[in-house]
C-alpha cells in the first residue's frame, strides 16, 4: 500500500515538473535596450476648475519614437594602415560604424583613429602611394570576372571578324561595362561564321583602371534572324567543358594571370 502511494506521488511530482518546464523557459535572455514612446492621441488640457483628467482608452496607444533597433548607427573616420578587402586601401580615410571601429579595425591593428596628428602624419608620409590595387573594388571585380563565362553571340549568315566592340556589347548584356581601349583580343584573328567555332572558348584580356589586367573566358555562339535556322539552345552551357579555339591557349580561370602595372 505504502509502495503504491509512494510510486503515485513520485509519478505526479514528475508530471508536475514536466508541465512547469513546458510552461516556463529554462533560462531567460536579457537584452539592454532603451525605448522612447509618444502618445498617438495626446490628452487635452484640463478645463478651468478641473483638477483631474480621466484618460480614455485611446490615450494608452503609443508609437515608438526611437529604439536601439531603429536608431541610426553613428559613424567615425578611421585611417587604414593596411589593405582591407571591400573597405579601402592603405592610407585611405574611411567612415565606419562607431561600434565596429575599435573591435574590428583598430584593435587588430589594421586601422587607427583619424586624429589631426594622424592625418598630418599621413599627408607627410608615402604610405598612401603604396597600393595593392588601384581601387577598393578591383579585387571584387576580378573575382567576379574570373567566375564567369561570357557568351559572344555572332551572326550565322553574315561574315564577321571578332573586334573589341563585339566583346564590349556582349559584356554589356551581362552587366559589365568596359571601353574598347580596355579590351585586348588574342593575337590571332577569329573569323566566321563557322560552326566549327560553336561553343568554343577563347580568352580576352581586360584592363581595369589602366592598371590591373585580368583574363576572361568567352565562348562563341551563332545566332540567326530566321527562327528555323537557329541552333538548339543549350541549357547552362557555361557549366560544360569547352574546347579552345587556339589549342596553345591552355589557361584556365584559376591559372589566368592577374597583373598590375606600376
From TrEMBL:
Pfam families named among the record's database cross-references: Ribosomal_L9_N
Segments forming domain Ribosomal protein L9: 77-122
Keywords: Ribonucleoprotein, Ribosomal protein
Record-level GO cellular component terms: ribonucleoprotein complex; ribosome
Source species, domain of life: Eukaryota
GO MF annotation list: structural constituent of ribosome
BP GO terms, sorted: translation
InterPro entries referenced in this protein's UniProt entry, alphabetically: Ribosomal_bL9, Ribosomal_bL9/RNase_H1_N, Ribosomal_bL9_N, Ribosomal_bL9_N_sf
Family: Belongs to the bacterial ribosomal protein bL9 family.
Stated name of the protein: Large ribosomal subunit protein bL9m
